[in-house]
Amino acid sequence: MQIITLIFGGPFGGRFLLLSLLTLAIYWPGLNGWFVFDDIGNILDQPALHISHLGWQELRDAAASGAAGPLKRPLAMASFAVNHALTGLDPWWFKLTNVCIHIFNGLLVLWIAWLTAGHLFPSLPERERRRFALIASALWLLHPLNLSPVLYVVQRMASLAALFVFLGIGFYLYGRRAQGGRRWLWIAAAFACTVPAALSKENGLLLPGFLFLVEWLVCGFKAQADERQALLAVHSLLFWLPVLATLFYTALHPGWITNGYANRPFDLEQRLMTESRVLWFYIGLFLLPNIQHMGLFHEDIPLSNGPLDPPTTLLAIMGLGVLVVMAWRLRHQHPIASLGIFWFLWGHSMESSVFPLELIHEHRNYLPLVGFCLMAADGLRLLSRKLSTTICTAVTGSILLGLMIATAARAALWGDTAAQMLVEVQNHPNSAATAYEAGRVMFRLAENVEGDEQEKYLQDALRLFHKAAERGNIGGLYARVVIKSSLLQDDVSKDLSELKRRLSEGPLHAHNFTLLPALAKCQQTGKCQLPAAEVWSLYEAIRRNPRLSSRNRALIEASAARFAVNALHDLPLGLTLARQAAEAYPGNGCARTTLIALQLALQERKNATVELNKAIAAGTSECSVQIRHLKEQLAAAPKALP
Fold this sequence. Notes:
globular; O-mannosyl-transferase_TMTC; TPR repeat; transmembrane; repeat; transmembrane helix
């Protein structure tokens, strides 16, 4: 296949192999870092992924165990399970796998750029087309903005989705140069890549839009009349119709988007205005990749509360409008510039638009950044016509060298997670999430030492957690309660009071639904010296919060049921709460698992059977392992005497 020859021979003569080895060498120091942030909940604390061999049932359970996004990202979850089966929970191997995916994606970018040049510049000498493709791929592979999707393990979700999107675009461009029926087979394969892309991460659903862009701006719908009509029909059916259907559904049912803002510190209007500035922030990091401005978290960027609050909001909105107009006007004279702008904007159309997600994450640029890399490579191609080859080579080499140095420095920092987080706290002093994550790193260091050194790390962790809590991160409060009650035996009454207030009144971050059960477990095991009544008061506080969604209420009621039975020794209360969990989220069978477990413990075999059947009928993909274990317990339970 053509893509294989791009690595070992063909027009590139092994140059990409050298670029791959260079990329691997730059990222190598970063492989030594730990798991961070969402790696914990999605990988470390996900027992369904911790498989010992690659059996079909184990992989199926792992794939179904995801909780991120509406599609649960089963392909990415299964890939983590494969890593565990082969190498255990060593983050080094997880990160190496990510680097390999990144390098393969770089090969696909090379292929896309090569095919794009072939479509747009058929008369261009092969040497220039080869240079254009290599530069585009090198810019993308070596840019430090692409580091977090690689070394932040859980963002394999983003890189896997990009892999299938790139593969689909390559199939499409390759197929458009094929003849007869083979053309339509390649086009069908291109659109089919949407499925594995979306099952890796939801922004894989953007693939049909990318295929429309490359058809419109690269291929130009050039074909015989009947084939042209067929192409228009395919893009109308597979891209425009779903887009229009989504817009129509949203107009009739806006709640499927707006309801998600209940637990966000911003509303839809604030998000849209802020995202206009965020997009320019991303563009700035591409053009001037200062690694001091990069980081895991950027929630310290202030919200836009109006077009002039801050004033840069209006400028950002107008600037995006100018970009769109410019892209439209350049579509004939400079199609790659037009493609690059529209590619970037379309790539952000899901995660930087109306959906109630966090405002900013660098890994969201992994897919959109290709558009700007194509633009930059084309700009350097045009520059070579005005300047001497020596000067143009020097400019290109300087740019790539600068990117390599920045990425190597950033990779080395990510290889030492403790140093990384302290540097990020320094670079983002107003970021609550950064302070919290740095506090977790200090706490981990404290767990591995003793004496004065442990005390130092604990005090550093408490300081960082306090800083996080002051800036609104509720995880900081949980962490302070755990450290003070388990290791320092300090008074936690003030922290508990503030925690109750926030749980009953404030927005409920997703981490509450793992942190509160973790605190309850800490109390039950005796590690946290807390009265059970105090922990129960936290459950009562969060259960009063009017912002609880159905799903989250089910999670809290189920956790409260387990705490009522195990810590309060109140079985009737536990059963009542378990039933409330099932009623709160009837469309998901996982909400019934606590009730089934309690009924089995009480030897209520008949009731447990009824609830298990209801759970299976409602759907149990998120808890398939747990359901299987409950079925096994039910089968082994003694039948009632006649």
